[in-house]
Design brief:
about 400 residues; two-stranded antiparallel sheet
């Protein structure tokens, strides 16, 4: 079992060395006279005058406390399952290890089957954490999500280690299947048939925390973490970021959010509130930031808050101009309303952090890219090249759109 303390606040302590009286460089007679006078004053020692007393040393300035990124969220309880679970079984096949957690009171898929995740040790200093997608389930759409977790790692697109243009082909991998229906951050059991027993287990926060414990154990000192996710996994990177930072407090984190950019039903903040209430994930939103669920109903203000909190994070946002799944199925707002919100929301995030946040949007109808359409281009820039520019800290990493 892995136990890990919260990241301690860093402290900067400024101190001034005391000046040393150069007593041994003075003539002996002067030293003797000073010593005699000092001794006499010490013996007299009965004056009531405060002027005869040596001045008190000034109180040192208190050290400045630097608050860790996302400490408010940890205080609100999002890290409550870190260090709580270990896999029941870990099995290796062709270098990929699948870690299974059984069917107890901890990690579970929504149908009650066991949660599992997988790791691949490629001998790298860098780590990809990949969150898979697969729909979403909430009170309005209770049966619209993947309900079981697969074994292994699907080696396609950005996860294909044989693909020559893949910028992360040599990275270690921690792969998270998706089976909670709540964007990897849910924590609610439901009795859907009214028989008095829970039969729907939305335990994404358990699953995510348990998997990140495995990632930390397998890859304790990565040079860089690349947090990726598609669709529900793209949105999942939003919830996962503070917990990835909790586990890896000093490493740079690059986020590649594929088709989970946070556009919601326009001007309906109550929709986002409904989701977080259904999934019991309100603790991911800081109480000090009421604007993180803004009147426009989108997540960009929350993304800006996260970037403000953590200066060692960069974000790349991927989206089709016409996202079929979000615009037509889950949000049911249509392509026109989707586009009307998409571009301003992505620009808002870039304007807030122009060196650390960019977007890549081809004019196309579809949903995800990283595994489904890795050869797509936007603004003449192929996706794999755009991600490589991001990870290489290139000045050519800029927003691209058709």
């Amino acid at each position: 079992m892995i136990h890990r303390e919260n990241l301690e606040a860093r402290q900067t302590i400024m101190s001034n060395p005391n000046l040393v009286n150069p007593i041994f460089s003075a003539p002996f007679s002067k030293w003797l006279a000073v010593s005699v006078l000092a001794a006499a004053g010490s013996l007299a020692g009965c004056s009531d005058s405060s002027s005869d007393r040596p001045a008190a040393a000034p109180e040192p300035e208190p050290p400045e406390t630097v608050v860790a990124p996302f400490q408010e969220l940890y205080d609100q309880g999002i890290s409550r399952y870190i260090g709580e679970y270990t896999p029941m079984l870990s099995e290796e096949e062709e270098g990929i290890v699948t870690h299974s957690f059984g069917t107890g009171d901890g990690p579970l898929c929504i149908d009650g089957s066991e949660f599992r995740m997988a790791t691949l040790d490629a001998g790298s200093q860098d780590l990809v954490i990949f969150l898979q997608g697969g729909g979403a389930c909430w009170s309005e759409l209770p049966n619209s999500c993947t309900e079981t977790a697969s074994s292994g790692i699907p080696q396609s697109g950005i996860l294909d280690p044989t693909r020559a243009d893949n910028p992360v082909k040599d990275y270690n991998v921690a792969y998270f299947p998706y089976c909670d229906g709540g964007l990897h951050g849910s924590d609610r059991d439901t009795d859907s048939d009214g028989d008095g027993d829970a039969d729907r287990f939305q335990r994404g926060l358990h699953n995510l925390s348990a998997g990140l414990d495995v990632a930390l154990r397998e890859f304790p000192n990565p040079r860089r973490v690349v947090l990726m996710g598609s669709s529900a996994g793209g949105l999942g990177t939003t919830f996962a970021l503070p917990l990835v930072r909790y586990q890896f407090p000093d490493v740079r984190i690059d986020i590649v959010n594929d088709a989970g950019v946070g556009v919601n039903r326009p001007n309906q903040p109550e929709f986002l509130e409904l989701l977080t209430n259904d999934w019991n994930s309100e603790a991911f939103f800081p109480e000090s930031c009421p604007e993180c669920i803004p009147e426009d109903g989108h997540l960009s203000d929350y993304h800006v808050w996260q970037m403000n909190e953590d200066p060692n994070v960069r974000r790349g946002m991927l989206s089709h101009s016409d996202d079929t799944v979000f615009a037509l199925v889950f949000l049911m707002i249509g392509f026109d309303a989707w586009k009307e919100a998409l571009y301003p929301e992505m620009q808002q995030l870039e304007d807030a952090h122009p060196e650390r946040s960019h977007y890549w949007i081809p004019k196309a109808v579809g949903h995800t890219f990283l595994q489904a359409e890795p050869d797509q281009t936007a603004g003449g820039v192929p996706l794999m090249e755009w991600i490589a520019l991001m990870l290489d800290d290139s000045e050519d990493w800029v927003s691209a759109q058709d």
